[in-house]
Write a structure and sequence with these properties.
Helix content: 55-70%
Order of helices and strands: HHHHHHH
Length: 168
C-alpha cells in the first residue's frame, strides 16, 4: 500500500518552504539565526512569519508531521509539586525580606523606581513606565478664558487674544 504524499492546496514560495522546514526541524532557533541560514535579512524573515498565508502553510506542515511529542522527564507527582511550591514560597519570603532591606537602605531613586514598578506590576496594578513625550493639551472653557482675560486686564498687562475652541 503506497502512502499518498499530501500537497498544499495553494502555490507556496520556495523560501517559505525552506523557512517552514527550518522552523519545524529547529524550533529553538531565533529569527536572526534562521535568516542567516536562509541567506536573508532578519526583517524579511520576520515579515514572512507574520503573514497569515505563511502561518497557514506552516500550520499545515506541522499537521502533516503527525509527530507525538513525548516528555523527556516524567511528570511530577502531586507530592513533589507541593514540596516544590513550599520551597519556592519559603525562598520568596526570604527574597521579599531582602528586598525590603534594600528599599529601606538605598538612596538610588532609579533602583527604588524599578522596585516600585515591579512590585505594582506583580500585585496586579499596571504602573505607567513611560512618560508621554507629547506636549500637554489644556482645554480652557469660554468662561475660564473670560476670567483669565479679565484678571490679565486687572494686572495692567497685555491681553493675549486667542481662539476659543468649544468643548466637545
Amino acid at each position: 500500500m503506497n502512502a499518498e504524499i499530501a500537497t498544499y492546496p495553494e502555490p507556496v514560495r520556495t523560501e517559505w518552504k525552506l523557512l517552514a522546514k527550518t522552523r519545524i526541524e529547529n524550533p529553538s532557533l531565533s529569527i536572526a539565526e534562521i535568516a542567516t541560514a536562509l541567506g536573508r535579512n532578519a526583517n524579511t524573515v520576520h515579515m514572512w512569519i507574520r503573514r497569515p498565508e505563511y502561518q497557514r502553510y506552516e500550520n499545515w506542515c506541522i499537521a502533516q508531521q503527525n509527530v507525538m511529542i513525548t516528555p523527556t522527564m516524567p511528570l511530577p507527582t502531586p507530592r513533589e509539586r507541593k514540596q516544590l511550591q513550599d520551597h519556592i514560597n519559603y525562598f520568596a519570603e526570604e527574597m521579599f525580606e531582602r528586598l525590603q532591606v534594600i528599599v529601606e537602605q538605598t538612596s538610588d531613586n532609579k533602583l527604588l523606581t524599578d522596585i516600585a514598578h515591579d512590585a505594582l506590576d506583580r500585585a496586579g496594578f499596571s504602573a505607567q513606565k513611560h512618560v508621554s513625550r507629547g506636549a500637554p493639551t489644556f482645554v480652557i472653557t469660554e468662561e475660564a478664558m473670560r476670567v483669565l482675560l479679565s484678571r490679565e486686564q486687572e494686572a495692567q498687562g497685555e491681553v493675549i487674544v486667542g481662539e476659543v475652541v468649544p468643548r466637545l
